From TrEMBL:
Residues 1-30 form the signal peptide. PROSITE patterns: PROKAR_LIPOPROTEIN. Residues 133-247 form the L,D-TPase catalytic domain. Residues 32-55 are annotated as: Disordered. Keywords: Signal. It comes from the Bacteria. This is L,D-TPase catalytic domain-containing protein. InterPro entries: LD_TPept_cat_dom. The keyword Signal applies. Pfam families: YkuD (PF03734). Coiled coil: none annotated.
Length: 258
């Protein structure tokens, strides 16, 4: 298990409960700052959690063709080095319902995986996310760090196995939130890559929100995150490979076609 160090002073159980309540109110990953003690590029491995075999490499001299459903502006934000893209497409600008597809590039081009049902924020999508707007940020973001309340399911990403991912309460439709953060991947929106998803650093300022994750679906809209069913979340964790520079392209269909 990854060990987290806390700031000066011990928080009381009441303060911890308040922090977890704040997580539900202002962002999927809101919470206390943690510094994870780990070697850069390394990750913790749970007992029995076998690492996936290395994925076959492709020549970066092969120009990537534009992904289906992504327009030229969105595609231009994807690095030529990237050969894994999770495309999350919202049903509408103000809808919390979306789908997710993991695309992987080989020498012959992009290949789509299975279409997974997903949720996004309660009020839909925005090009300028701010704290408390209940919208998911449109854009292309790297995926560099993972973690969860449960042990590493076998990912290549650095993984923070921590009790800090505990959550309770209910969602917008009365569904229980417990287990939502059993597995998460941090979306690198307003955060410092290379840190646990629980890290509270906000380069754009606290007002621009943060703690935007891909996490386990609790059966309803999120505060700003993208959520997948548990089996799909575990499959994604096992598939993403930092050597393939994975990113997520997320937004409503019209925004992604720009």
């Amino acid at each position: 298990m990854t060990t987290s160090t806390r700031g000066a002073g011990r928080r009381s159980a009441v303060a911890l409960a308040a922090a977890l309540s704040l997580a539900v109110l202002v962002g999927c990953g809101a919470g206390e700052t943690r510094t994870t003690e780990r070697t850069p590029g390394a990750h913790t491995t749970s007992a029995g959690g076998a690492r996936p075999a290395p994925a076959p490499r492709i020549s970066l001299d092969v120009a990537p063709r534009q992904l289906p459903s992504l327009g030229p502006r969105t595609s231009a934000k994807i690095s030529p080095r990237t050969s894994q893209v999770l495309v999350v497409t919202g049903r509408g600008r103000n809808s919390p319902v979306s789908t997710a597809v993991l695309y992987e590039r080989t020498a012959s081009g992009w290949h789509a995986g299975t279409v997974w049902p997903a949720h996004n924020a309660f009020k839909g999508w925005t090009d300028h996310h701010v704290i408390g707007d209940l919208r998911s940020p449109v854009g292309v973001y790297t995926l560099t760090d993972a973690g969860g309340l449960r042990g590493d399911p076998g990912t290549r990403l650095p993984y923070d196995h921590s009790g800090g991912f505990s959550v309770d309460g209910t969602g917008f439709e009365g569904e229980p939130l417990a287990g939502s953060f059993d597995y998460v991947i941090a979306i690198d929106y307003n955060r410092e890559p290379g840190n646990t998803p629980l890290d509270w650093t906000r380069p754009l300022g606290a007002g621009r929100g943060g703690g935007i994750w891909v996490h386990v679906d609790h059966g309803g809209p999120t505060q700003g995150c993208v959520s997948l069913r548990e089996e799909h979340m575990k499959a994604l964790l096992r598939a993403v490979d930092p050597d393939r520079h994975p990113v997520i392209a997320m937004g409503d269909a019209a925004a992604l076609r720009r």
